[in-house]
Amino acid sequence: MRVLIVDDTRANVELLDQLLSLEGFETLTAADGRRAREIAGRDKPDMILLDVMMPGESGFETCAKLKSDPETVDIPILFLSALDDVRSKIDGFKAGGVDYISKPVHGEEVLARVRVHLRILETNRALAREHKARLEEFRTAQQAILVRPEDLPEACFAVRYLPLEGAGGDFYDVVEIAPDVYGYFVADVSGHGVSAAFLTSAIKALLRQYSGPLFSPEDTMRGVDRVMRQILGEEQYLTACYALLNRRTGRLSVVSAGHPPLLVARAGGGVEVVEMKSDPLGIFSSLALQRQDLQVSTGDRFVLYSDGVIEMRCGAGRKNGLAALAEAVQAYRGFPLEAVPARMMEAVRGSGPADDDLLLLVAEVAA
Asked: What are the chain's domains?
């Protein structure tokens, strides 16, 4: 463990340096707050022992600046100060310190407190590593059940999926119902992260169970809804859009369950917004669904997506986000299919940080 000692009095630095070094700690030293911040940003110590009264910026100011920097925000800071009044201690904790030791310091007390806080730090790091490993397991498992365009090239689709965390609550699937008949499904489970991602495998299984020549698109949605109502937690639900493409008849049957509208880009130009009023899945015992049947031709494309794509346009609102997506669909209609989802998403969202899972799937009617 590496400890940074910050004090403008050399004797104090040497005392603490010797105390910690003899116990096996690696030490770094600084005589003022500015230098301490430089060292902390470069060498990433595990802990900082920080004097309060120093030339230039005070220890409280140094601590506040360290806590405002993403590179050093998680380093625990212990104040060492001759100021032992309650107000000073409160100011230290408000600045972001985890402990406050009054001078003159006692070696055994310093060692005891340093060890306690470093054990807490190591425990938190272990928990973070465990959480990251679990998220990675969920991410890997979730990615394994998502069909890739190269797995089903006959379906002629491309997809862009960016979960907010290691695993997400958005889900898509593409199913071959029969030769020249394909189902395209996009869903968004309320919330995100592991709890939402856990449900995606169940949704995939249900979709496969209730899709096929025996089931209409409405039957598929009702089958998913019937089971999800039994397993979703309180206040959980999912929105979904299911598009069944029959190349033999040139028909695209679309059923929505509280989901953003599907978009159709015609090969000859123009974009249609297929909007329907319907209920989300997993809530109501009597589910209201709407279906629209569209005639499509070779070269037409249709777009399914989650609401995060159109709700992140710099706070411009869902309506403006939808308009921006329609413009992107038109702008990239002639681009190679595999390049379209990423370009569309960037055009609609910009480069700002996301606060939701993002999913966009584009399919093309092949000959």
From this structure: 2-129 (3.40.50.2300), 146-364 (3.60.40.10)
Burial (CB count within 10 angstroms: exposed 0-12, middle 13-18, buried 19+), residue 219: middle
The Cα-based distances of 305 to 62, 161, 254, 260, 353 in angstroms read 46, 9, 14, 7, 18
What is the rounded distance in angstroms from the CA atom of residue 134 to the CA atom of residue 39?
Answer: 33
Note the pLDDT tens digit of each residue in 1-30. Answer: 999 999 999 999 999 999 999 999 999 999
DSSP per-residue codes, 139-192: HHHHHHHSPPTTTSGGG-EEEEEE-SSSS-SEEEEEEEEETTEEEEEEEEESS-
The whole-angstrom separation of Cα 210 and Cα 231 is: 17
Q: Are 322 and 261 in contact (CB under 8 A)?
A: yes
The set of residues, in sequence order, having a beta carbon less than 8 Å from that of 153 and lying 6+ positions away, is none
Token pair of 181 as six digits: 């008949």
Two structure tokens written together for 160: 């862009």
Distance, CA of 43 to CA of 79 (rounded, Å): 20
Which residue would you say has higher pLDDT here, 191 or 228? 228
Which residue, among 2, 70, 67, 60, has the nearest Cα to 33 in the 3D structure?
A: 60
Nearest Cα residue to 91 out of 65, 64, 130:
64
Task: Give residue 285's pLDDT.
Answer: 82
Helix axes 59-67, 86-95, angle to 10 degrees: 20
User: How far apart (Å, rounded) are the C-alpha atoms in residues 175 and 54?
Assistant: 68
Cα radius of gyration (the chain): 29
Tokens of 199: 């449900």
Spatial separation of the C-alpha atoms in residues 203 and 78, rounded to whole Å: 50
Q: What is the pLDDT of residues 286-302, one digit of tens each?
A: 888 999 999 999 999 99
- Residue range 248-271: average pLDDT? 95
Q: How far apart are CA 149 and CA 26, in angstroms?
A: 52
pLDDT confidence of residue 349: 76
Identify whether the C-beta of residue 173 lies closer than 8 Å to the C-beta of residue 159: no
